[in-house]
Amino acid sequence: TLYGISPPSTVYSFDEHLLDWNIVANVNHSGGTLNGFCIDSSSRMYATVGNQIYTIDTTIGSATLVGNLGGVFQSSGDCVVDKIDGIYMTSSGVQGDDFVRINPVTGEGTLVGNTGVSGIYGLTSAWGYMFGFTGQGQLVEIDKMTGQAQVIHSFPNIVFYGAASSAMR
Question: How many domains does the chain divide into?
């Protein structure tokens, strides 16, 4: 199933037979716009907004607050789950976006490091690598141990506002 989010707080699923999007849940929250969405290996869905992370239950269409990210962390664009169910996100930093690991039980964020790249609005983990996509059309590779990002390619006249990957990645 393909899922997506739409500001300020709606989660959708795509009906491939009707070729239409259906509302799955509305995330009742305070503090910003829903802007990060990821799914772990057990199909648990997470959404980030401001300094909070939620789980999404598609069977009853509800969202539950996992916790506050803590510190100065604010979801700036996306969240992602890697192959071992580690949850990461970006948060606007002084010298570029910060790369943050999120505890899936408490919601607490831990700084991995500064990426050195601003405006990372899409994240994906594939083939053992972490990638980011920026509002300036850049594809970056992020080191999961240090948070540092390296620009792989710049796409002229392209703006990225998200990313996705399949479970087969």
Answer: 1
